[in-house]
Fold each of these.
Amino acid sequence: MKKLYGVIGDPIAHSLSPAMHNAELKELNIDAYYHPFHIYEKDLRTAVEGMKVIGVDGFNITVPHKTAIIPFLDRVDPLAKAIGAVNTVVKEDGQFVGYNTDGAGFVESLKEVWKEDLTNEKTLIIGAGGAAKAIYYTLLSIGVRQVDICNRTIQKAEALIAAQPYDADSKVLTMEEAESSIGEYSLVIQTTSIGMDPDIDQSPLSLRNLNPSAFVSDIIYNPKETMLLKQAAEQGAKTQNGLGMLVYQGALAFEKWTNKKPDARRMKQTVTNFLG
Ligand code: ATR
């Protein structure tokens, strides 16, 4: 019987996931369909119960339900639990199990364009929201030794570090401190929403002290180049935008549902074509 996958969120109309997954399901001759479901917060519990009853085989969760869904699942993987957010649900023996592939998707995208072993990279994360948390805990979980965080609201960065279950030696920096010491970092990851509005050219901090051999990643993918990435490239640094993270979080979910490895480069091409 045809399998059914999907994504739930509010809003959902602009999600790129249906185009990305449906094209790849077709390429691999998998008899399945991926549908976007517009679910309001007040209907979340009913929606999850409904998904199970009608036989949905797995689904993604996007804004604003990634945390709120946790109590409605049968089980949650330990890393997703630590992050406090689920972006992928897999049906395992009739039970809905929650995972977080956002951080791992980020790591895979970095491995594709930069390097396999990240453990010795001195890393600075800019921002302390949900995306920062997923990336921070995932980097610690794969053994990256020093990951520091700077954020406008310093208490939020302190809270992320205090709650990490890995006993890592992380530091909190103000934006000003990060600007002056950014030259010490070999990997800089921008996770705030600054740069998302294509009409406002804004960067969370100046990169004038950046080490030109550093790698700078911005998880924003639209517009393609944020001001931060333009500045990084001007300094000679290698850069990537957030398209790779979007693709790989999806590729990892796809593999969990189908047990087939999708072609992530092809998925990236599908999304690039779709964005035009
Ligand atoms: P997400 O889940 O996408 O990470 P979030 O949890 O709302 O979103 O987090 C947004 C991040 O962007 C936070 O780090 C936030 O900084 P604060 O903790 O100080 O709010 C950051 N951010 C958003 N707008 C910002 C701005 N104008 N200047 C600096 N940081 C900003």
Note: The first strand starts at residue 3 and ends at 9.
Amino acid sequence: EKDKELIRGSWESLGKNKVPHGIIMFTRLFELDPALLNLFSYSANCSITSDCLSSPEFLEHVTKVMLVIDAAVSHLDDLHSLEDFLLNLGRKHQAVGVSTQSFAVVGESLLYMLQCSLGANYTAPLRQAWLNLYSVVVAAMTRGWSK
Ligand code: HEM
């Protein structure tokens, strides 16, 4: 319960518009693993990462990612209700060439964004609470990978 409060409180404190935070997250992600950029078919339209991240298609994906996190935060009491959605989302990511190993660096980027955005409110228990939620989401998405 303490974990849920930490997650809800911190997510709310980021404000209504989550897109700028998503941009911080994906800027970090492409910094840590630039090859992920190439999985977006529309990445051909931009030569440098900062161009990409301000293009409409990338902003749309960032917005979608933030909406999925938002859904997870809203369903902390019944995360299993998102199982089918997340499994399908995993399937779509396998189809575009994402590997499940990339979720580790996505998680790192999420924590990086939280650290940047929350400042002194980014504490060890908060970090752990987010890691726990993230691992549930990743586990559900990973079920969408066929071997
Ligand atoms: C769709 C790539 C991580 C949520 C897509 C698409 C690509 C992609 C290429 C299809 C084109 C598009 O809709 O823009 C990636 C890569 C990721 C990543 C390379 C990191 C390794 C995530 C994460 C989430 C997410 C962490 C949410 C937790 C979505 C959603 C869609 C999508 C909701 C739309 C699916 C649909 O069309 O129904 N992603 N993605 N993505 N992605 Fe990601």
Note: The chain has one domain: 2-142.
Amino acid sequence: EVDGGERGVHAFLHVNTEEALAVAREVDAARAAGGDDAAALHPLAGVPIAIKDLIVTVGQPTTAGSRILEGWMSPYDATVIKKIRAAKLPILGKTNLDEFAMGSSTEHSAFGPTRNPWDLDRIPGGSGGGSAAAVAAFEAPLALGTDTGGSIRQPGAVTGTVGVKPTYGAVSRYGAIAMASSLDQIGPVSRTVLDSALLQELVGGHDPFDSTSLTDPFDTLVAAARAGAAGGGLEGLRIGVVKELGGEGFQAGVETRFHEALELLKGAGAQVVEVSCPNFKYALGAYYLIMPSEVSSNLAKFDGVRYGLRVLPQDGPMTIERVMGATRAAGFGDEAKRRIILGTYALSAGYYDAYYGSAQKVRTLIQRDFDNAFAQADVLISPTAPTTAFPLGEKLDDPLAMYLNDVATIPANLAGVPGLSLPGGLAEEDGLPVGIQLLAPAREDARLYRVGAALE
Ligand code: GLN
């Protein structure tokens, strides 16, 4: 073992063998008995699943990758967990992540990094590196992640797995510890596009406990994936290549595989057109103002009183402010602190309009870019990440270099549209997985599954 278990991968923070086995045995018994019980089983019953440790679960710890929640147990299940339990998927355990889902490499976890199963010296992406690595290493066939700026899709890309960020509101966020509420979305991680469709259809749908939850039925995803896999539906489909998501900063081997994917789509009868989204160049800047602003407010509740860690000041008066200060100083890591400070600054009186206000305007421009692009194309396509997995440590001390991993994934979160990343083969220069990203208009998640399954 390298370190951290699982032959050095360290995808899991908590393993839940006993409960998972009990559920698996229950499903086995129902299948063996046949009759109504067997017939009533969900197609995914008995298929084990790993859960990103940002999603709350009764009976298992939820840490969000942070010392500040170490030892905390949720008194309730997230809506997605309730659905998973009802369908009898054995929950294998909780997977590693960058603290509070902030990062692109899983190196910002307070509990040590996860490593990429393709090369243990490289990152598995982030923030959901644990979920992606668990699936890539054949430790779990399915996992759940959360995606605020790419944390499902970019780990999918660099580990050769499928990852989907559904339309904002398609899957309930109730019980997902909030990072940036207007961007966060729970979604599936799997080895095939069809598996992700099955999982999104299971966990998605309207939830009165999430005020931003859509009422639309998202129940055609599996049918769409099956149709795509059977070769249906690409004839005449317009696929838009986003001009701004390629070229400078994108690794040659990534571009080569991306162009191959375009040829495949053309061969299957799709029409490939170029579209321009001129405001995408401001997406990263807008995201890194809006996201920390929401982070600073969402993380205010970790005050040393309500949840997890409490650190008492060693000397001086024992005031609530000083307990809060000591707890937050000891409980949060550097990246969480950096973003809380950034967000607090951006929201402060006198700066609000200049920073947060401007970023919100850019967000509208990006939504308009998408509207224009979707008037010319049914689905947009780009590489998911500019490079393949980079070595551990390479970008840890350079936040801006780390943030640049998200250029291609962030626009979807800012506009609320769905995105799917699927494996596009290995880059020639390093033999590491390349991800292809598909984007569709809001509520058109089925379109992604159809095209994704056709391309797979
Ligand atoms: N890498 C991005 C960030 O650090 C994405 C995070 C996410 O999607 N949770 O903010």
Note: Residues 101-104, 126-127, 146-151, 179, 291, 406 surround glutamine (CB under 6 Å).
